[in-house]
Amino acid sequence: MKNTIRLLTSSSLLISLIACGTAMKAPMVDPAITVPNGHQLVMSALGSGELTYECKAKAAMPNTFEWSFVGPVANLTDKNGIVVGKYYGGPTWESNDGSKVTGKQLAVVPGNPGSIPLQLVKTNGGTGTGAMSDISYIQRLNTVGGIAPTDSCSSDNLGAKKMVKYQADYLFYKPN
């Protein structure tokens, strides 16, 4: 039986990866965000939502201000646009089956112009049984939007929060 998984490319075209009883082939990406050998691509989802930024004073620079990343809130959808989970602060990826995984960023490389970077995350292990069980690495690819606001950030609006829309493909890997 064949399983088809669709990935949204940066040009918004859909590409199908077909698994015929063997591991799906991971996409070619910058070496800095390549998943190490010994892990296989098992699932992908399109993340669509918002990233929150807050106007804060820069560390060790009390009179200088910047928009600082606070956290994400996004739905994860499958190739048919059906919500299969969510992504939120932690960072945490949670499946509708209740399983979830958290992780730590290992590397980033520039994404599309005006978009957040591509990313490689090493997971901290998961909870529950289901889609997120045993996920070891997550890649964020094909990012659109999500960069910090360009609005003024100063003592006048210190503590203000802004939500910025974004979209990205999330690829999930398990050990072989």
Task: Note the main attributes of this structure.
single chain, 176 residues, mainly beta, 8-stranded antiparallel β-barrel, two-stranded antiparallel sheet, 10 strands, elongated, disordered N terminus, signal, DUF3455, DUF3455 domain-containing protein
Structural class: mainly beta
Number of domains: 1
The residue ranges in which pLDDT falls below 50 over 5 or more consecutive positions are 1-22
Across the major sheet, the strand order is: 3-4-5-6-7-8-9-10
Could you tell me the mean pLDDT? 87
**Structure annotation, total helices:** 0
Spell out the helices and strands N to C.
Answer: EEEEEEEEEE
* CA-atom Rg in angstroms: 17 Å
Terminal Cα separation, in Å? Answer: 20 Å
Shape: elongated
Question: Can you describe this structure?
Answer:
The strands form two sheets. The chain has an eight-stranded antiparallel barrel with strand order 3-4-5-6-7-8-9-10. It has no helices and ten strands. It has one domain. The chain is an all-beta fold. The two termini are 20 Å apart. Strand 1 (3-8) and strand 2 form a beta hairpin. The protein has strands at 3-8, 14-19, 39-58, 61-77, 83-88, 92-95, 100-109, 118-127, 137-145, 161-175.
Summarize, please.
This is DUF3455 domain-containing protein. This protein is mainly β.
Furnish the topology, listing elements before pairings.
Blueprint (H helix, E strand, L loop, with lengths): L2 E6 L5 E6 L19 E20 L2 E17 L5 E6 L3 E4 L4 E10 L8 E10 L9 E9 L15 E15 L1
Antiparallel strand pairs: 1-2, 3-4, 3-10, 4-5, 5-6, 6-7, 7-8, 8-9, 9-10
Keywords: Signal
Pfam families: DUF3455
Organism: Undibacterium danionis
